Amino acid sequence: MTQPPDADLASDLAYVRTLAEEGAHAPLVGGRFYVIWGGLMAAASMTAYLTTMDVLPLGVAGMIAPWIVAGVIGWVLSFTIGRRSGAKPGAATLGNKTAAATWFAVGVFITLFWAAMMLVHGQYTEYGVPRYFLFSLLFPIGFGVYGVAFLATATAARVGWLRYFAILSWAFMSVTMFMLASPHQFLVGAVGMIACAVAPGLMLMRREPADIV
Hints:
mainly alpha; 0% strand
């Protein structure tokens, strides 16, 4: 028996609604980027910390080179792996697109901010600001924008538990702000990168779809 047109329309609408609901709850596919950047930045920060503690006799190179190496590797891997992640199921949803754009903006901002610091860090000594002191602002600002990105991602992708990492990021922002003149800021920063980037990244990777479409 042929179904009436209204029944066909209702069935089509139900199907479209199901697809929309599945897309709205599609898992985030960017967890590997959290792990990559968090791991690289934590390693760079620990290297800088061990240099300041005279555990690694690397001198000025030990304070600057690790960040350059981490940044270059991070961006290369991001663009290399980004294409693969973009093919995963759900990658084209609003939540994933918002998360990708937000975290890309965070990466660009922090990279440009660090590059600017390389140029201006010694220009304010006449005002009593020690050379390299401005670099200590990177952790507070970095954790601050991490919190904003986590909150935006949690809202767009409907992943409520990411809000806790936004709060955690702002907690590390506050702590590192009180450690601007302390070499131990590097140690706290490394711990913060693992807690606020590597940990949620691993959690997201466990929820990612495995199939490539």
